[in-house]
Amino acid sequence: MNGINKNKNKYTLTRKEERAIIRENRKMMRHFEKLKKRKNVSESEYLTQMRDPNNLVEFDDLHTYFYTDIGTVKAVDGVSFEIPKGSTVGVVGESGCGKSVTSLSLMQLVQAPQGQVVKGSIRFNAGDKCYDIVKMPTEAMRKIRGKDISMIFQEPMTSLNPVFTIGSQIDEVILLHLEGYTKKQAKEKSIEMLKRVGIARPEAVYDSYPHELSGGMRQRVMIAIALACEPKLIIADEPTTALDVTIQAQILDLLREIKHKTNSSIMLITHDLGVVAEMADYVVVMYAGRIIEKGTVNDIFLDPKHPYTIGLMKSKPVVNKVVDRLYSIPGQVPNPINMPNYCYFRDRCDRRFDKCAGDYPPLYKISDTHYAACYLCDKSKEAQ
Ligand SMILES: Nc1ncnc2c1ncn2[C@@H]1O[C@H](COP(=O)(O)OP(=O)(O)O)[C@@H](O)[C@H]1O
Ligand SMILES: [Mg+2]
Question: What does the pLDDT read at residue 351?
Fold first, then answer.
Protein backbone atom coordinates (compact mmCIF):
# COMPACT_ATOMS: atom_id res chain seq x y z
CA MET A 1 0.00 0.00 0.00
CA ASN A 2 1.25 3.42 -0.85
CA GLY A 3 -0.21 5.11 2.20
CA ILE A 4 -0.21 8.62 0.79
CA ASN A 5 -3.53 10.40 0.64
CA LYS A 6 -5.56 10.16 -2.53
CA ASN A 7 -5.65 13.82 -3.46
CA LYS A 8 -2.87 14.20 -6.02
CA ASN A 9 -2.20 17.84 -5.37
CA LYS A 10 -2.19 17.61 -1.63
CA TYR A 11 1.20 16.77 -0.18
CA THR A 12 0.52 17.39 3.49
CA LEU A 13 -0.42 14.47 5.67
CA THR A 14 -2.72 14.49 8.67
CA ARG A 15 -1.42 13.05 11.93
CA LYS A 16 -3.69 10.10 11.44
CA GLU A 17 -2.31 9.39 7.97
CA GLU A 18 1.23 9.78 9.25
CA ARG A 19 0.63 7.27 11.99
CA ALA A 20 -0.96 4.82 9.57
CA ILE A 21 2.07 5.06 7.26
CA ILE A 22 4.52 4.53 10.10
CA ARG A 23 2.57 1.52 11.34
CA GLU A 24 2.38 -0.01 7.88
CA ASN A 25 6.10 0.68 7.28
CA ARG A 26 7.09 -0.99 10.50
CA LYS A 27 5.14 -4.07 9.57
CA MET A 28 6.69 -4.29 6.09
CA MET A 29 10.23 -3.66 7.28
CA ARG A 30 9.96 -6.28 10.01
CA HIS A 31 8.66 -8.79 7.49
CA PHE A 32 11.53 -8.31 5.03
CA GLU A 33 14.28 -8.05 7.66
CA LYS A 34 13.21 -11.34 9.18
CA LEU A 35 13.57 -13.06 5.82
CA LYS A 36 17.12 -11.78 5.36
CA LYS A 37 18.42 -12.61 8.82
CA ARG A 38 17.43 -16.29 8.71
CA LYS A 39 20.25 -18.63 9.67
CA ASN A 40 21.02 -22.07 8.25
CA VAL A 41 19.06 -21.49 5.06
CA SER A 42 19.72 -24.39 2.74
CA GLU A 43 21.30 -23.43 -0.57
CA SER A 44 18.49 -25.04 -2.52
CA GLU A 45 16.17 -22.20 -1.44
CA TYR A 46 18.09 -19.64 -3.44
CA LEU A 47 19.45 -21.76 -6.26
CA THR A 48 17.85 -21.02 -9.60
CA GLN A 49 18.28 -21.40 -13.36
CA MET A 50 19.30 -18.70 -15.78
CA ARG A 51 16.83 -18.05 -18.55
CA ASP A 52 19.79 -17.88 -20.92
CA PRO A 53 23.08 -19.44 -19.76
CA ASN A 54 24.99 -16.81 -21.75
CA ASN A 55 23.79 -14.16 -19.33
CA LEU A 56 25.74 -13.27 -16.25
CA VAL A 57 22.91 -11.38 -14.56
CA GLU A 58 19.17 -11.32 -15.18
CA PHE A 59 17.06 -8.69 -13.44
CA ASP A 60 13.52 -9.94 -13.52
CA ASP A 61 10.67 -7.62 -12.51
CA LEU A 62 12.74 -6.04 -9.73
CA HIS A 63 10.88 -3.83 -7.27
CA THR A 64 12.90 -1.98 -4.63
CA TYR A 65 10.97 0.35 -2.34
CA PHE A 66 11.87 2.72 0.47
CA TYR A 67 9.43 2.91 3.35
CA THR A 68 9.72 6.54 4.42
CA ASP A 69 7.62 8.46 6.92
CA ILE A 70 5.83 10.30 4.16
CA GLY A 71 5.04 7.24 2.08
CA THR A 72 6.56 4.53 -0.06
CA VAL A 73 9.21 5.62 -2.58
CA LYS A 74 9.08 3.19 -5.47
CA ALA A 75 12.72 3.72 -6.40
CA VAL A 76 12.81 0.69 -8.71
CA ASP A 77 9.43 -0.41 -9.94
CA GLY A 78 9.43 -3.45 -12.19
CA VAL A 79 12.81 -3.46 -13.90
CA SER A 80 13.88 -6.35 -16.16
CA PHE A 81 17.07 -6.53 -18.20
CA GLU A 82 20.06 -8.77 -18.56
CA ILE A 83 23.82 -8.44 -18.56
CA PRO A 84 25.29 -10.93 -21.04
CA LYS A 85 28.67 -12.48 -20.21
CA GLY A 86 31.61 -10.36 -21.30
CA SER A 87 29.56 -7.32 -22.27
CA THR A 88 29.13 -3.79 -21.01
CA VAL A 89 25.61 -2.65 -20.22
CA GLY A 90 25.10 1.08 -19.81
CA VAL A 91 22.31 2.21 -17.50
CA VAL A 92 21.34 5.81 -18.19
CA GLY A 93 18.77 8.30 -16.97
CA GLU A 94 18.45 11.54 -15.05
CA SER A 95 19.47 11.78 -11.43
CA GLY A 96 17.02 10.01 -9.11
CA CYS A 97 15.62 7.57 -11.67
CA GLY A 98 16.75 4.48 -9.75
CA LYS A 99 20.06 3.57 -11.38
CA SER A 100 22.04 3.30 -8.16
CA VAL A 101 19.27 1.53 -6.29
CA THR A 102 19.12 -1.09 -9.08
CA SER A 103 22.83 -1.83 -8.67
CA LEU A 104 22.68 -1.71 -4.88
CA SER A 105 19.88 -4.29 -5.01
CA LEU A 106 22.22 -6.55 -6.95
CA MET A 107 24.85 -6.14 -4.24
CA GLN A 108 22.31 -6.44 -1.40
CA LEU A 109 23.47 -3.04 -0.24
CA VAL A 110 20.18 -1.14 -0.32
CA GLN A 111 19.88 0.91 2.84
CA ALA A 112 17.93 -1.32 5.22
CA PRO A 113 15.52 -1.47 6.92
CA GLN A 114 13.76 1.33 4.98
CA GLY A 115 14.98 0.07 1.63
CA GLN A 116 13.78 -3.41 0.64
CA VAL A 117 13.53 -5.52 -2.47
CA VAL A 118 9.83 -6.28 -2.29
CA LYS A 119 9.32 -8.27 -5.48
CA GLY A 120 11.16 -9.86 -8.40
CA SER A 121 14.42 -11.73 -8.73
CA ILE A 122 18.02 -11.07 -9.64
CA ARG A 123 19.61 -14.18 -11.08
CA PHE A 124 23.38 -14.38 -10.93
CA ASN A 125 25.35 -16.91 -12.91
CA ALA A 126 28.25 -17.98 -10.70
CA GLY A 127 29.52 -20.54 -13.22
CA ASP A 128 28.61 -23.96 -11.87
CA LYS A 129 25.59 -22.59 -9.98
CA CYS A 130 23.03 -19.81 -10.36
CA TYR A 131 21.71 -17.85 -7.43
CA ASP A 132 18.70 -15.67 -6.89
CA ILE A 133 20.31 -12.81 -5.01
CA VAL A 134 16.96 -11.56 -3.73
CA LYS A 135 16.43 -14.77 -1.80
CA MET A 136 19.99 -15.10 -0.60
CA PRO A 137 20.61 -14.63 3.12
CA THR A 138 23.19 -11.96 4.00
CA GLU A 139 25.68 -14.62 5.12
CA ALA A 140 25.84 -16.22 1.69
CA MET A 141 25.88 -12.89 -0.15
CA ARG A 142 29.08 -11.86 1.65
CA LYS A 143 30.95 -14.57 -0.22
CA ILE A 144 29.91 -13.21 -3.60
CA ARG A 145 30.19 -9.51 -2.87
CA GLY A 146 33.69 -8.22 -3.54
CA LYS A 147 34.73 -11.50 -5.12
CA ASP A 148 32.34 -12.26 -7.98
CA ILE A 149 30.70 -8.84 -8.08
CA SER A 150 32.56 -5.69 -7.17
CA MET A 151 31.68 -2.06 -7.33
CA ILE A 152 33.50 1.14 -8.18
CA PHE A 153 31.81 4.06 -6.51
CA GLN A 154 31.43 7.63 -7.66
CA GLU A 155 33.45 9.23 -4.90
CA PRO A 156 36.69 7.39 -4.18
CA MET A 157 37.51 9.49 -1.13
CA THR A 158 34.50 8.24 0.78
CA SER A 159 35.06 4.62 -0.21
CA LEU A 160 38.69 4.46 0.87
CA ASN A 161 39.41 4.38 4.57
CA PRO A 162 41.55 7.45 5.44
CA VAL A 163 43.39 5.79 8.33
CA PHE A 164 44.76 2.77 6.48
CA THR A 165 47.41 2.67 3.79
CA ILE A 166 46.39 1.93 0.22
CA GLY A 167 48.32 -1.32 0.37
CA SER A 168 46.59 -2.66 3.45
CA GLN A 169 43.19 -1.93 1.88
CA ILE A 170 43.97 -3.94 -1.25
CA ASP A 171 45.63 -6.72 0.78
CA GLU A 172 42.50 -7.00 2.90
CA VAL A 173 40.29 -7.77 -0.08
CA ILE A 174 42.72 -10.36 -1.41
CA LEU A 175 43.18 -12.09 1.95
CA LEU A 176 39.44 -12.13 2.53
CA HIS A 177 38.39 -13.59 -0.78
CA LEU A 178 41.25 -15.50 -2.32
CA GLU A 179 42.19 -18.74 -0.69
CA GLY A 180 45.70 -19.71 0.33
CA TYR A 181 47.34 -16.29 0.04
CA THR A 182 50.02 -15.42 2.57
CA LYS A 183 50.52 -11.79 3.58
CA LYS A 184 53.63 -11.61 1.43
CA GLN A 185 51.83 -12.99 -1.62
CA ALA A 186 48.94 -10.58 -1.04
CA LYS A 187 51.36 -7.67 -1.05
CA GLU A 188 52.90 -8.86 -4.29
CA LYS A 189 49.48 -9.14 -5.87
CA SER A 190 48.44 -5.71 -4.60
CA ILE A 191 51.49 -4.11 -6.14
CA GLU A 192 50.84 -6.00 -9.35
CA MET A 193 47.23 -4.67 -9.35
CA LEU A 194 48.44 -1.11 -8.83
CA LYS A 195 50.79 -1.55 -11.75
CA ARG A 196 47.96 -2.89 -13.88
CA VAL A 197 45.78 0.15 -13.34
CA GLY A 198 48.59 2.36 -14.58
CA ILE A 199 50.05 3.63 -11.34
CA ALA A 200 53.74 4.56 -11.58
CA ARG A 201 55.91 3.67 -8.59
CA PRO A 202 53.36 1.20 -7.21
CA GLU A 203 55.59 0.28 -4.22
CA ALA A 204 55.49 3.87 -2.98
CA VAL A 205 51.74 4.15 -3.52
CA TYR A 206 51.29 0.88 -1.66
CA ASP A 207 52.64 2.55 1.48
CA SER A 208 50.79 5.86 1.12
CA TYR A 209 47.50 7.04 2.59
CA PRO A 210 44.46 8.03 0.49
CA HIS A 211 44.83 11.78 1.18
CA GLU A 212 48.31 11.73 -0.34
CA LEU A 213 46.93 10.82 -3.76
CA SER A 214 45.11 12.85 -6.41
CA GLY A 215 41.48 12.17 -7.35
CA GLY A 216 42.44 10.26 -10.49
CA MET A 217 44.95 8.14 -8.57
CA ARG A 218 42.38 7.32 -5.91
CA GLN A 219 39.93 6.24 -8.58
CA ARG A 220 42.63 3.98 -10.02
CA VAL A 221 43.18 2.49 -6.58
CA MET A 222 39.44 1.86 -6.29
CA ILE A 223 39.54 0.06 -9.61
CA ALA A 224 42.55 -1.97 -8.44
CA ILE A 225 40.59 -3.01 -5.33
CA ALA A 226 37.52 -3.84 -7.39
CA LEU A 227 39.60 -5.97 -9.75
CA ALA A 228 41.83 -7.66 -7.21
CA CYS A 229 39.73 -10.83 -7.15
CA GLU A 230 38.99 -10.86 -10.88
CA PRO A 231 35.26 -10.44 -10.46
CA LYS A 232 32.80 -11.67 -13.06
CA LEU A 233 30.94 -8.39 -12.85
CA ILE A 234 32.18 -4.87 -12.22
CA ILE A 235 29.55 -2.31 -11.32
CA ALA A 236 30.80 1.17 -12.09
CA ASP A 237 28.42 3.77 -10.66
CA GLU A 238 29.25 7.12 -12.27
CA PRO A 239 32.94 6.16 -12.11
CA THR A 240 34.21 9.32 -13.74
CA THR A 241 31.78 12.01 -12.59
CA ALA A 242 34.09 13.38 -9.91
CA LEU A 243 37.08 13.51 -12.25
CA ASP A 244 38.27 16.01 -14.81
CA VAL A 245 37.97 15.24 -18.50
CA THR A 246 41.44 13.94 -19.29
CA ILE A 247 41.46 11.65 -16.26
CA GLN A 248 37.93 10.55 -17.22
CA ALA A 249 39.17 9.39 -20.60
CA GLN A 250 42.09 7.52 -19.02
CA ILE A 251 39.85 5.73 -16.53
CA LEU A 252 37.43 4.70 -19.27
CA ASP A 253 40.31 3.39 -21.38
CA LEU A 254 41.51 1.45 -18.38
CA LEU A 255 38.09 -0.11 -17.76
CA ARG A 256 37.82 -1.10 -21.39
CA GLU A 257 41.27 -2.64 -21.42
CA ILE A 258 40.60 -4.60 -18.24
CA LYS A 259 37.31 -5.89 -19.53
CA HIS A 260 39.06 -7.04 -22.66
CA LYS A 261 41.79 -8.84 -20.72
CA THR A 262 39.64 -10.53 -18.09
CA ASN A 263 36.43 -11.02 -20.09
CA SER A 264 34.38 -9.70 -17.20
CA SER A 265 31.08 -7.85 -17.64
CA ILE A 266 30.54 -4.23 -16.71
CA MET A 267 27.36 -2.57 -15.52
CA LEU A 268 28.11 1.05 -16.26
CA ILE A 269 25.85 3.55 -14.58
CA THR A 270 25.99 7.10 -15.83
CA HIS A 271 23.94 10.11 -16.82
CA ASP A 272 26.49 10.81 -19.54
CA LEU A 273 25.36 9.52 -22.91
CA GLY A 274 28.78 10.17 -24.42
CA VAL A 275 30.34 7.68 -22.03
CA VAL A 276 27.70 5.09 -22.86
CA ALA A 277 28.11 5.50 -26.61
CA GLU A 278 31.81 4.93 -26.24
CA MET A 279 31.76 2.04 -23.80
CA ALA A 280 28.53 0.07 -23.88
CA ASP A 281 27.30 -2.87 -25.96
CA TYR A 282 23.77 -2.59 -24.58
CA VAL A 283 21.88 0.38 -23.17
CA VAL A 284 19.07 0.53 -20.65
CA VAL A 285 17.28 3.88 -20.31
CA MET A 286 15.52 4.41 -16.99
CA TYR A 287 12.93 6.97 -16.03
CA ALA A 288 11.31 7.31 -12.59
CA GLY A 289 12.12 3.76 -11.50
CA ARG A 290 11.20 2.02 -14.73
CA ILE A 291 12.87 1.06 -17.97
CA ILE A 292 11.45 3.12 -20.79
CA GLU A 293 13.73 1.84 -23.52
CA LYS A 294 16.44 -0.78 -23.93
CA GLY A 295 18.47 -2.16 -26.80
CA THR A 296 21.91 -2.49 -28.30
CA VAL A 297 24.00 0.64 -28.41
CA ASN A 298 23.14 1.01 -32.11
CA ASP A 299 19.39 0.57 -31.47
CA ILE A 300 19.44 3.36 -28.92
CA PHE A 301 21.80 5.80 -30.59
CA LEU A 302 20.82 5.34 -34.24
CA ASP A 303 17.13 4.69 -33.82
CA PRO A 304 15.84 5.95 -30.45
CA LYS A 305 12.08 5.45 -30.13
CA HIS A 306 10.93 6.83 -26.80
CA PRO A 307 10.47 10.63 -26.75
CA TYR A 308 12.45 10.69 -23.50
CA THR A 309 15.44 8.95 -25.09
CA ILE A 310 15.19 11.29 -28.07
CA GLY A 311 15.14 14.22 -25.62
CA LEU A 312 18.22 12.88 -23.84
CA MET A 313 20.05 12.65 -27.18
CA LYS A 314 19.13 16.22 -28.00
CA SER A 315 20.44 17.45 -24.67
CA LYS A 316 23.88 15.98 -25.31
CA PRO A 317 26.57 18.47 -26.41
CA VAL A 318 28.03 17.83 -29.85
CA VAL A 319 31.64 18.53 -30.77
CA ASN A 320 32.10 21.30 -33.38
CA LYS A 321 28.54 22.51 -33.05
CA VAL A 322 28.02 25.80 -31.31
CA VAL A 323 24.60 26.34 -29.79
CA ASP A 324 23.37 29.21 -27.64
CA ARG A 325 21.81 26.92 -25.14
CA LEU A 326 21.75 23.19 -24.72
CA TYR A 327 18.36 21.61 -25.12
CA SER A 328 16.75 20.45 -21.90
CA ILE A 329 13.60 18.39 -21.60
CA PRO A 330 10.93 20.67 -20.11
CA GLY A 331 9.17 19.79 -16.86
CA GLN A 332 10.19 17.60 -13.96
CA VAL A 333 10.27 13.96 -13.01
CA PRO A 334 7.06 13.20 -11.08
CA ASN A 335 7.15 12.90 -7.29
CA PRO A 336 8.28 9.34 -6.55
CA ILE A 337 5.76 8.94 -3.73
CA ASN A 338 2.79 9.98 -5.76
CA MET A 339 3.20 8.50 -9.23
CA PRO A 340 0.42 8.95 -11.76
CA ASN A 341 -1.15 5.76 -13.10
CA TYR A 342 -0.51 6.76 -16.72
CA CYS A 343 2.87 7.04 -18.49
CA TYR A 344 5.22 8.87 -16.10
CA PHE A 345 6.69 10.88 -18.94
CA ARG A 346 3.37 12.00 -20.42
CA ASP A 347 3.25 15.41 -18.77
CA ARG A 348 6.65 16.33 -20.22
CA CYS A 349 6.15 14.68 -23.59
CA ASP A 350 5.67 16.74 -26.75
CA ARG A 351 4.27 13.77 -28.68
CA ARG A 352 1.54 12.66 -26.27
CA PHE A 353 -1.86 11.69 -27.62
CA ASP A 354 -5.18 10.37 -26.24
CA LYS A 355 -3.94 6.91 -25.45
CA CYS A 356 -1.20 8.24 -23.18
CA ALA A 357 -3.79 9.12 -20.55
CA GLY A 358 -4.58 5.42 -20.21
CA ASP A 359 -2.64 2.73 -18.38
CA TYR A 360 1.13 2.85 -18.11
CA PRO A 361 2.38 1.54 -21.50
CA PRO A 362 3.97 -1.93 -21.72
CA LEU A 363 7.40 -2.46 -23.28
CA TYR A 364 6.72 -2.84 -27.01
CA LYS A 365 9.06 -5.00 -29.02
CA ILE A 366 10.65 -3.14 -31.91
CA SER A 367 13.21 -5.82 -32.81
CA ASP A 368 14.71 -8.86 -31.10
CA THR A 369 16.97 -6.58 -29.11
CA HIS A 370 15.08 -3.29 -29.00
CA TYR A 371 12.12 -2.45 -26.70
CA ALA A 372 10.37 0.80 -25.76
CA ALA A 373 7.55 1.60 -23.35
CA CYS A 374 5.65 4.11 -25.46
CA TYR A 375 2.29 3.92 -27.24
CA LEU A 376 3.93 5.41 -30.32
CA CYS A 377 5.60 2.02 -30.74
CA ASP A 378 2.33 0.11 -30.63
CA LYS A 379 2.04 -1.40 -34.08
CA SER A 380 -0.93 -3.64 -33.34
CA LYS A 381 -4.07 -3.35 -35.47
CA GLU A 382 -6.21 -1.73 -32.83
CA ALA A 383 -3.68 1.08 -32.45
CA GLN A 384 -4.00 2.12 -36.09
N1 LIG B 1 17.94 5.73 1.49
C2 LIG B 1 16.91 6.22 0.79
N3 LIG B 1 15.75 6.58 1.40
C4 LIG B 1 14.71 7.06 0.69
N5 LIG B 1 14.70 7.20 -0.64
C6 LIG B 1 15.82 6.88 -1.31
C7 LIG B 1 16.99 6.36 -0.65
N8 LIG B 1 17.94 6.10 -1.57
C9 LIG B 1 17.40 6.45 -2.75
N10 LIG B 1 16.13 6.91 -2.61
C11 LIG B 1 15.23 7.37 -3.67
O12 LIG B 1 15.20 6.40 -4.69
C13 LIG B 1 15.12 7.03 -5.96
C14 LIG B 1 16.22 6.50 -6.86
O15 LIG B 1 17.48 6.87 -6.37
P16 LIG B 1 18.86 6.50 -7.06
O17 LIG B 1 18.84 5.09 -7.50
O18 LIG B 1 19.93 6.91 -6.09
O19 LIG B 1 18.90 7.44 -8.33
P20 LIG B 1 20.05 7.60 -9.45
O21 LIG B 1 19.40 7.20 -10.73
O22 LIG B 1 20.40 9.05 -9.47
O23 LIG B 1 21.20 6.74 -9.07
C24 LIG B 1 15.18 8.51 -5.72
O25 LIG B 1 13.88 9.03 -5.78
C26 LIG B 1 15.75 8.63 -4.33
O27 LIG B 1 15.28 9.77 -3.69
MG1 LIG C 1 23.15 7.31 -8.50
Answer: 93
